Amino acid sequence: MPMYKVRPFHGPRAAAEQLPTCMYRLPSLHRTAPPQEEVDPSLQALESRQEEILKRLYELKSAVDGLSKMIQTPDADVDVTNIIQTGDCSPLTANGADLDLMLGKDYGALKDIVINANPSLPPLSLLVLHSLLCERYKILSAVHTHSSVKSVPENLLKCFGEQTKKQPRHEYQLGFTLIWKDVPKPQMKFSIQTMCPIEGEGNIARFLFSLFGQKYSAVTSTLMDSWVDTALFQLKEGSSKERGAVLRAMNAALGKTAWLVGNELSVADVVAWCALQQTGSANTAPANVQKWMKSCENLAPFSSVMKLLK
């Protein structure tokens, strides 16, 4: 027996019922839109400016697309060493650069380059560049030992040679001070109070080489930077496989030109030669590299550094 009765929904009475055709009703949205409010003039100005900028960007894009069809971009695999012209750089025996323009004018004070280096891994390339700079400028050189270092070999204390001839400080063009210090990598400053140190042997070598005042094309400068990084990170610090690849690349480049970049000595040659000496790969180098190394060693700055390796 059911608990309660429900009215039946079938039969003639159910047919008379008007059932809804949807779940529920909503008011119609198709009515006359209310009058638009007045737009802020600043918003109109912003929209106009945006449209103008987009129009100009579209015009620039069209112009660039047209130029890209007219100009042929060289292939990335092209050997750019063939592009370097013989007269791209001047020899290192040319006149020096304007040090006041490059290092800033100190109103009579001697510009002093101070380098901190670890005696356990001496930066040979900086010593070679020091000797090259001495051929160009009158340099007051000095070597000191920091208290963080217990002992320094005698040959490193005399790496700048015997400083016997002393002249008044104001008669020198540049000061070059080397401090043997317990640092992870070489550091350099030439304005103690106003600049952050330049760190890394490659970066300091680039700076010192810039003091020769030579001007290079973008291609030549890029090749120099590439060889410097390759010498330090792959030839000096890389695996035996990486060193072999670098030596093969050097042998190919030196088969076309007397030096790594063009027909004149550059910072790339200095850093690469020193890296070969420190890694002990000089004796196993290919023929062109061996010939290039002898050309380097025939120069006095390189031969003086070789004495430090003995």
| Strand segment tally | 5
**The CATH architecture of the domain at 97-211:** Up-down Bundle
Radius of gyration: 37 Å
Helix count equals: 11
Query: What does the overall shape look like?
Result: elongated
What portion of residues belong to β-strands?
Answer: 5-15%
- The secondary structure category is alpha/beta
Mean pLDDT: 80
> What's the level 1 CATH class of the domain at 97-211?
Mainly Alpha
How many strands, what sense, and barrel or not for the largest sheet? 5 strands, mixed
Low-confidence stretches: 72-78, 83-87
* Percentage of residues assigned to helices: 40-55%
Question: How far apart, in Å, are the first and last alpha carbons?
Answer: 117 Å
The ordered H/E elements are HHHEHEHEEEHHHHHH
In CATH, the topology of the domain at 97-211 is named Glutathione S-transferase Yfyf (Class Pi), Chain A, domain 2
The spatial strand order of the largest sheet comes to 2-3-1-4-5
Keywords: Apoptosis, Cytoplasm, Developmental protein, Differentiation, Nucleus, Phosphoprotein, Protein biosynthesis, Ubl conjugation
Domain Glutathione S-transferase C-terminal: 236-298
Pfam family, one: AIMP2_LysRS_bd
GO biological process, one term: cell differentiation
Compact description:
This protein is α/β, with parallel strands linked by helices and 310 residues long. It contains 11 helices and 5 strands.
Describe this structure in words.
- The chain is α/β, with parallel strands linked by helices and 310 residues long.
- Among the domains are: 97-211, Glutathione S-transferase Yfyf (Class Pi), Chain A, domain 2 (Up-down Bundle); 218-298, Up-down Bundle (Glutathione S-transferase Yfyf (Class Pi), Chain A, domain 2).
- The chain is built from eleven helices and five strands.
- The chain has helices at 12-16, 41-70, 99-103, 124-134, 154-157, 201-210, 218-236, 240-254, 267-279, 287-297, 300-306; strands at residues 112-117, 139-145, 174-180, 187-189, 198-199.
- It has a five-stranded mixed sheet, with helices on one face.
